[in-house]
Amino acid sequence: MRHASVTMQQLISLMFISLAVAFASVPPEIASEIREYVIGVGVECIAEVGASNDDISKIIKHQLPETEKGKCFVACVYKKMNILNRSGKIDKTSWYAILDELKSFDYDTYKTIRPMADRCLATVTNSHDECETATNLLGCMFHESKCDIPNGEKCIFDF
Predict the structure, then answer these.
(1) What residues have CB less than 8 Å from 112, skipping those under 6 apart?
(2) Which residues contact 70 (CB under 8 A, 6 or more apart)?
(3) Helix axes 8-18, 53-60, angle to 10 degrees
(4) Which of 14-18, 48-52, 118-122, 150-154 has the lowest mean pLDDT?
(5) Would you kindly state where each structural domain of the chain is located, as residue ranges?
(6) How many Å separate Cα 10 from the centre of its chain?
(7) For the chain, N or C: smaller number of CB within 10 Å?
(8) Tens of pLDDT, residues 33-52
(9) CATH homologous superfamily for 27-148?
(10) How many Å from the N-terminal Cα to the C-terminal Cα in the chain?
(11) Whole-prediction pTM
């Protein structure tokens, strides 16, 4: 399979995605480390699955990707972040470990995100297709955080 090259627009898009982790009370050095990690993972996943600028742009706009490559981009990122395991199934233990790390340095954000994660983990089921599972999980988080409501409440991932 031929890997797609990563364009400057895709890199800029990934930087915007990574801003979602720069919550107000996260120490700047930790936010910087997280941002670098997320950008690195995103770049790897763009190359691995060949996601397009449109795929990434949709995610930034809190819309679910519609193409197979866009959905598989989400799965790739989630697998690299251990939200999905190697088999493409939701890894609840790892998800809660990530939240526990967040809790240690940004309790306010943890209090906001934990109930959303609980609801999504209780309602999103594993599909035979890891790309669908990942996209369904992302959709649930967008919904729970009100990111999918046009002109609704401010999405917690908007900065």
Answers:
(1) 156
(2) 51, 52, 54, 55, 56, 58, 59
(3) 20
(4) 14-18
(5) 27-148
(6) 15
(7) N
(8) 777 787 888 889 999 999 99
(9) Pheromone/general odorant binding protein domain (1.10.238.20)
(10) 37
(11) 0.80
